[in-house]
Amino acid sequence: MEKLPMTAAGFSALEAELKHRQQVERPRIVEAISEARSHGDLSENAEYHAAKESQSLNEGRIAELEDKIARAEIIDVSKLSGNSVKFGATLTLIDEDTEEEKRYQIVGDTEADVKSGRISVSSPISRALIGKKVGDTVEVNTPGGGKSYEILKVEFI
């Protein structure tokens, strides 16, 4: 069973979603199925079929969340230190083409969200950055073409 590295915040988010799906969504869907069933003939009951599909999707997501939580390897970023890039590091980079400063944290696949500044440890940019130090320049092949970044700061927050 392959472990999934993640931050404590990422693990908490998975637990919160699981709890919501089990304690809020599941009873709501069961109620919707009950109500739709009371309308009679199930073969032509669109509400019933929609509720059953909703139940199937919810139960599938619950199973997926339970699997991820069981395989989670929580890494406490606050206990990490050093000046080289590794899992959990928060980086300040400068795009050498546009001179734009960017800030990213390297996190597990399940908690990645580029818009929030969290990039997956398995992404091309993370793979290129891991092991590098402040002042290093990194060339990254992205789907949009090659990019060049200089590492300005490495923090473990």
TrEMBL record:
GO-annotated molecular function: DNA binding; RNA polymerase binding; translation elongation factor activity
Ranges of residues in domain Transcription elongation factor GreA/GreB N-terminal: 5-74
Any GO BP: regulation of DNA-templated transcription elongation
Signal peptide: none
Recorded superkingdom: Bacteria
Domain Transcription elongation factor GreA/GreB C-terminal: 83-155
Keyword terms: DNA-binding, Elongation factor, Protein biosynthesis, Transcription, Transcription regulation
Family of the protein in this entry: Belongs to the GreA/GreB family.
Functional description taken from the UniProt entry: Necessary for efficient RNA polymerase transcription elongation past template-encoded arresting sites. The arresting sites in DNA have the property of trapping a certain fraction of elongating RNA polymerases that pass through, resulting in locked ternary complexes. Cleavage of the nascent transcript by cleavage factors such as GreA or GreB allows the resumption of elongation from the new 3'terminus. GreA releases sequences of 2 to 3 nucleotides.
Listed HAMAP family: GreA_GreB
Protein's name according to its UniProt entry: Transcription elongation factor GreA
